[in-house]
UniProtKB/TrEMBL annotation:
EC class: transferase
Record field: catalytic activity: adenosine 5'-phosphosulfate + ATP = 3'-phosphoadenylyl sulfate + ADP + H(+)
Pathway the protein acts in: Sulfur metabolism; hydrogen sulfide biosynthesis; sulfite from sulfate: step 2/3
Record InterPro entries: APS, APS_kinase_dom, P-loop_NTPase
Protein name: Adenylyl-sulfate kinase
Protein family (similarity comment): Belongs to the APS kinase family.
UniProt cross-references to PANTHER family, sorted A to Z: BIFUNCTIONAL 3'-PHOSPHOADENOSINE 5'-PHOSPHOSULFATE SYNTHASE (PTHR11055), PAPS SYNTHETASE, ISOFORM D (PTHR11055:SF1)
Keywords associated with the record: Amino-acid biosynthesis, ATP-binding, Cysteine biosynthesis, Kinase, Nucleotide-binding, Transferase
GO biological process, one term: sulfate assimilation
Length: 206
């Protein structure tokens, strides 16, 4: 261990990635309520952590009750909710961590804002990977583990995505998971293959 500490102002992204031995990027999960976003993101986070890769998942529980507890569900607040999540994910990614976000994020324009935050005019954009967790609304409604569709159908939840509010599907997501046709393990494997193929993580030696 070196005892002489060298310090200089500001680390570059590549220096930080080199020292942390991993790249930072954001995996942005989007899809209907009960499409499987949290389940897949949680399984993937665990898998990445087991590989020794720093990863952290942002979801409704750790964001809505903390950072964004001042925000409601009106259109302006929903936009601000997503913008802040985008900013936080970007900071995690910039710190050479893998940020995973699991929010419905139903609007193309909002997801574009989050994506654009990761771009840079200095040519060192942070990778932003949109993961579309896609299931037909009927399947989501049949799974409905929290009974939210039932409540929405009964008119107890206004502006419920897929029922009484739109879901704007991604046009060209980096990863498209057909989550009515695969197991959670297969979905994780599909995402891992993408990350290996794009050289975002290094495949462990067999
Ligand atoms: P979201 O975070 O999108 O609201 P969840 O992750 O809570 O959705 O998943 C909704 C339900 O679907 C859960 O009960 C979960 O166990 C189930 N589920 C998720 N992925 C799959 C899958 N590939 N096959 C079968 N059931 C799944």
């Amino acid at each position: 261990m070196a005892t002489n500490i060298t310090w200089h102002e500001g680390l570059s992204r590549s220096e930080r990635n080199g020292l942390r031995k991993q790249k930072g990027f954001t995996l942005w999960f989007t899809g209907l309520s009960a499409s499987g976003k949290s389940t897949i993101a949680t399984a993937l986070e665990q898998h990445l952590l087991h590989l020794g890769l720093a990863s952290y998942r942002l979801d409704g529980d750790n964001v809505r009750f903390g950072l964004n507890k001042d925000l409601g569900f009106g259109e302006k607040d929903r936009n601000e909710n997503i913008r802040r999540i985008g900013e936080v994910a970007k900071l995690f990614a910039d710190s050479s961590t893998i940020a995973l976000t699991s929010f419905i994020s139903p609007y193309i324009a909002d997801r574009k804002i989050a994506r654009d935050l990761h771009a840079s005019d200095k040519g060192d954009a942070l990778p932003f990977i949109e993961v579309f967790v896609d299931i037909p609304v009927e399947v989501a409604e049949a799974r409905d583990p929290k009974g939210l569709y039932k409540k929405a159908r009964a008119g107890e939840i206004p502006n419920f995505t897929g029922i009484s509010a739109p879901y704007e599907a991604p046009v060209e997501p980096e990863i498209h998971v057909r989550n009515d046709q695969v197991t959670v393990e297969e979905a994780v494997a599909q995402i891992m293959e993408y990350l290996y193929a794009k050289d975002l993580i290094v495949k462990p030696a067999a």
